[in-house]
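Tokens for chain A. Residues wanted.
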């Protein structure tokens, strides 16, 4: 199976596997060291299978109710249709409700993940209330970027956790990381201090094609085949994106990115509280996921 970016096959010589960290065999210093060395920590199977399945099925049910997943909805097959706008006046309200599903929140904002971040930051940590749940249908991908422009307004001590709810083979558009990119000084210089919501003349997306980007820097594009319950944790300057979901079976890829920070750092009110407004103030309606599965995404 090929990895595709904008319809282009990624040369296999450019691809390499993410390096796994075994949580049970790692002490807190090992975790800090992995993050410092690689710019990411990749953990396999850290969330209980039953909890992941329950959350996935609850989310799929909601998507089935708006006719975006065919029956049996547990398979996660995109129907190509949508009644989302007919059934709900406000896309933001619909997506906020899906994002509030209890079984999902038990995982994203539950103790298991929180404790991992408390170990990494070495101080009690907290997950953002505003989460980025992503059901990704055929033809879609996330362009290459780093996360600093979204999440570092109040503190630099923020990490992203990309949590997996479905099997993600290479044809279903897994996340990739540009090896060593957390140490690219030009990226740090360009994006430190950048805020997507303030500096509107600039984009978070890095326009260079990831293949060219990796070739020019003589580095690799790291990825793997992900399974439900896996988590990829990375820093704000780690350059990443996703391959395209072109799976013939039309199964969607379901993931959720959750940000964590030490509890004693300043909190960005856009992402915390009972009614967080999100990056631009438009709430859950601003997310690509608020769009019906059969609609194209925006690029920021
Ligand atoms: O899952 C995706 O499509 C993108 C995830 C991402 O870019 C992130 O977690 O920062």
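Reply:
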């Amino acid at each position: 199976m090929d990895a595709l970016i904008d319809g282009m096959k990624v040369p296999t010589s450019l691809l390499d596997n993410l390096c796994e960290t075994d949580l049970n065999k790692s002490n807190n210093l090992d975790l800090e060291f992995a993050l410092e060395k690689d710019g990411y920590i990749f953990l396999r199977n850290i969330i209980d299978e039953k909890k992941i399945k329950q959350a996935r099925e609850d989310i799929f049910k909601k998507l089935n109710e708006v006719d975006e997943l065919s029956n049996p909805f547990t398979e996660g097959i995109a129907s190509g249709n949508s009644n989302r706008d007919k059934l709900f006046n406000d896309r933001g309200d619909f997506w906020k409700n899906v994002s509030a599903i209890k079984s999902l929140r038990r995982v994203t904002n539950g103790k298991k993940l929180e404790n991992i971040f408390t170990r990494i930051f070495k101080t009690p940590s907290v997950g953002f209330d505003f989460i980025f749940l992503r059901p990704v249908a055929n033809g879609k991908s996330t362009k290459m970027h780093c996360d600093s422009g979204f999440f570092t307004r109040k503190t630099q001590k923020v990490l992203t956790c990309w949590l997996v709810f479905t099997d993600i083979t290479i044809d279903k558009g897994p996340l990739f990381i540009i090896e060593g990119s957390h140490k690219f000084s030009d990226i740090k210089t360009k994006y430190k201090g950048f805020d997507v919501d303030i500096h509107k003349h600039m984009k978070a997306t890095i326009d260079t094609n990831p293949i060219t980007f990796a070739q020019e820097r003589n580095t690799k594009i790291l990825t793997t085949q992900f399974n439900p319950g896996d988590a990829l944790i990375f820093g704000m300057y780690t350059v990443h994106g996703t391959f395209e979901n072109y799976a013939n079976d039309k199964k969607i890829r379901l993931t959720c990115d959750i940000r964590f920070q030490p509890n004693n750092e300043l909190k960005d009110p856009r992402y915390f509280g009972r009614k967080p407004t999100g990056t631009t103030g438009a709430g859950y309606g601003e997310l690509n996921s608020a769009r019906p599965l059969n609609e194209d995404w925006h690029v920021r």
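The first strand starts at residue 4 and ends at 5. The chain has one domain: 4-290.
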